Amino acid sequence: GPRTMDLDLLLVGDRVMRDADIVLPHEEISSQAFVLRPLAEIAGERRHPVSGDTLAAMWARLDDAAPLRRVNLDPVNDARN
After folding, report:
1. What are phi and psi of 72, to 5 degrees?
2. pLDDT in tens, 31-54
3. Which residues pair with residue 17 across a beta bridge?
């Protein structure tokens, strides 16, 4: 049947808010490598609105504790093999 969409907002500009429905910035940005690494890659110089740290600096600290392995997906060639 129909499925509800789950959308996680990570950052909305420099907005900081907490209410029953939403927390900005998302609380898990600094602790989830799969969230922080892509953010740091596309906007590394952007500053976290609460800590003031750049996303790149946050990733550098987390990378040692929670390294990720990049997986390159090539669905066209993978389907041929």
Report:
1. -95, 120
2. 999 899 999 999 999 999 999 999
3. 24
Q: What is the pLDDT of residues 60-75, one digit of tens each?
A: 988 777 677 777 887 7
Secondary structure in 3-state letters for the chain: CCCCCCCCCCCCCCCCEECCCCEECCCCCCCCHHHHHHHHHHHCCCECCCCCCEHHHHHHHHHHHCCCCCCCCCHHHHHHC
Mean pLDDT rounded to a whole number for the chain = 87
| Under 8 Å between Cβ of 11 and 24 | yes
Nearest to 56 by CA among 21, 17, 28, 29: 29
Peptide bond into 38 cis (omega under 30): no
Domain layout of the chain by residue ranges = 28-67
- Residue whose pair of structure tokens reads 């989830």 in the numeric block: 32
